[in-house]
Amino acid sequence: MSDKFTTQAFIDAKKNNRKITMLTAYDYSMAQILDESGIDAILVGDSLAMPIQGKDSTLEVTLDEMLYHCRCVARGVKNAMLVGDMPFLTYHINPDEAVRNAGRFIQEGKANAVKLEGGTSMAAMVKAIVRAQIPVMGHIGLTPQSVNIFGGFKVQGKEESAAKALVEDALALEDAGAFAVVLEAVPEMLAKLISEKIGIPTIGIGAGKYCDGQILVVHDMLGLYSDFTPKFVKQYANLRGKMAEAVSTYVSEVRSQQFPEKQHSFTISDDVLEKLY
Question: Which residues are registered as beta bridge partners of 115?
């Protein structure tokens, strides 16, 4: 029997109160590590704009760039569910275009599902994509593609009207057929309320402990990206420091001729060598 984590596994996990684990990945090697470590699902997020491309928002990431990284990650994944993040303006125009672009994630990116941002306003797009037999993960709260509307990366749903709107967004996504919804930068008790109101799993990122699962950007939790670390991130390692230390040692050993050593070199017979002089 396959150990592949599926959309049904998401639903079963919520029913059984088993927390769902998700991380981002953008390349083959990282995908292998996450998959072999038992992660349930991997998101190829448009968040790659920051740690991979060095940009200050996700808005410039293109569909072709996302498909490239999806393919790289897909080659390293055996059991985790692979979710492709639809970038800005690839699902906003109309349902037909949303379906066509979502289909490219499945056919070309080898993803198992897509994620898109927005609640009630995107319900028609979600419904159309699901009707095309493509699983959709929703994303509400602080949706980075709306950073210019929000006026920055801010916690969402703190006021009564905004909190009510987020509850309606979650219900609309469930009604449209989404199999899960990401809650980003949402007050913990509001995330608890939403998690109790909907039948599909909530995946929190900066939304507290009551969500049905958690997701982090892998470069944040491993300490690989230092430009900005959100409050909700817990760093489980400081690989940036470890990598810098290793590179400094390499630089020093090359300059002092300590590297390469004999075991790092190849031999040639003396007879052959003599004929070359």
Answer: 85, 137
